[in-house]
């Protein structure tokens, strides 16, 4: 939803050139920030520290963001999208069909990476970065009185 909000703000204030200027780079800084934050939140999760930034980056550059933009705005995807021609991981020439195909393909790749990460994690192929804390001890009050120690010499 935030992408629609930003689009309307940029269009209302005639700031479209700021969004397309490669020297501004604000969207890239946001992507790096979200990736770093997610990676830090998964710190100690082993495989999630790898699959989260990889998946996020793949979905952003795969055309999925553009598909979601048009879908959430309730508009059809245009027949041609020439502004995406510089993106090398989207099928060329970029049309509505190739955009959907690219987004679908990369979504399948991300799901496969996630399943592979889970599989390797549970098979022991990926060790965790930090050891998991041990289970808390049982409440001693619930166990009853402590056993009496007997001395070995009577």
Explain how this protein is built:
- 55% of the residues lie in helices and 0% in strands.
- With 154 residues, the chain is mostly helical.
- It has a domain at 34-127.
- Helix 4 (48-61) runs antiparallel to helix 6 (96-123).
Strand content: under 5%
Characterize the biggest β-sheet: none
The shape is: elongated
- What is the CA–CA distance across the termini? 79 Å
Number of strands: 0
Spell out the key features of this protein.
single chain, 154 residues, mainly alpha, 55% helix
Topology of helices and strands:
Blueprint: H1 2-12, H2 16-20, H3 26-41, H4 48-61, H5 64-73, H6 96-123
Helix pairs in contact: 3-4, 4-6
How is this structure best summarized?
This protein is mainly α and 154 residues long.
